[in-house]
Amino acid sequence: MKRLLLLWVVTGLAAGGFAADEKSKDSKAVDRVKAAATVLDEIESAPDQGIPEEVLGSAECVAVVPSMLKGGFIFGARYGRGVASCRTPKGWSAPAFFSIKGGSFGLQIGGQAVDLVMLIMNDNGMRNLLNSKFKLGADASVAAGPVGRHAAADTDWKLRAQVLSYSRARGIFAGLELSGAAVGQDKDSTREFYGRMVPFKTSLTGQIDPPAGAFPFLNSLAKWAKSASSK
After folding, report:
1. E strand or H helix that includes residue 4
2. Which of 55, 65, 130, 182 is deepest in the core (most CB within 10 A)?
């Protein structure tokens, strides 16, 4: 009887430890989804800054990298992990997890973390994203996005780029000259979040339903995109 009781206790502790490990792993991907939602909310809540309504309302997909790390004088290592979602007939898609590495970010001095936002503006840009591996400025044209509540009438943001990029550092939000960065699927985070490997095309075209952990980002995205489209 004592041996049986001991076996139950050991089994229970092992199961509890396994669950804790799984929760710890999952939290990294879930926390990134929450952080992406916070970035979007804070940027769009700024009274005179943010992504113009015309631009956000026209975007096919939105990708956010919270606290992307960069460093060095003028050139240096840059790396970040983010989350993306695209429009589907049923609403915004289940999130896709990606990494972004390298690239030229214009003149940068010192090391700091920035929030990065990329808007995929047309079908060509979306096709590159669905391939789950592409290079900005080579496979997909990229340009600094206009900033403010409204895009100026003389801007050609609709014509000049498949991807519009923005950054926020130390409270300053601006269009970002981003070129040469490689974007690829973050397979580790994908497996943590979904419990299995899910291709970009499967999640971003609405072939799977978003799990509960996706809603902080998707709800924020839906709110701001709907507000932009209605004005």
Report:
1. helix 2-45
2. 65
Choose among 129, 107, 132: nearest CA to 118: 129
d(CA 26, CA 191) in angstroms, rounded, equals: 9
Number of neighbours of residue 160 by Cβ within 10 angstroms: 12
Residue type, 52: P
Residues with Cβ within 8 Å of 134's Cβ and at least 6 positions away in sequence, in order, are 128, 140, 182, 183
d(CA 77, CA 102): 6
165 touches 176 (CB < 8 A): yes
**Amino acid letter, residue 174:** A
Token digits for 67?
């606290």
Largest CA distance in the chain: 82
Tokens describing residue 15: 């199961």
- Chunked in runs of 10, what are the mean pLDDT values of the chain (231 residues)? 39 38 60 95 82 89 84 55 94 94 56 82 83 77 78 56 84 79 92 95 94 96 83 60
Is residue 96 within 8 Å of 19, Cβ to Cβ?
no
Residue pair 131/157 in contact (Cβ under 8 Å)? The answer is no
Q: Is-above-0.85 flag for pTM?
A: no
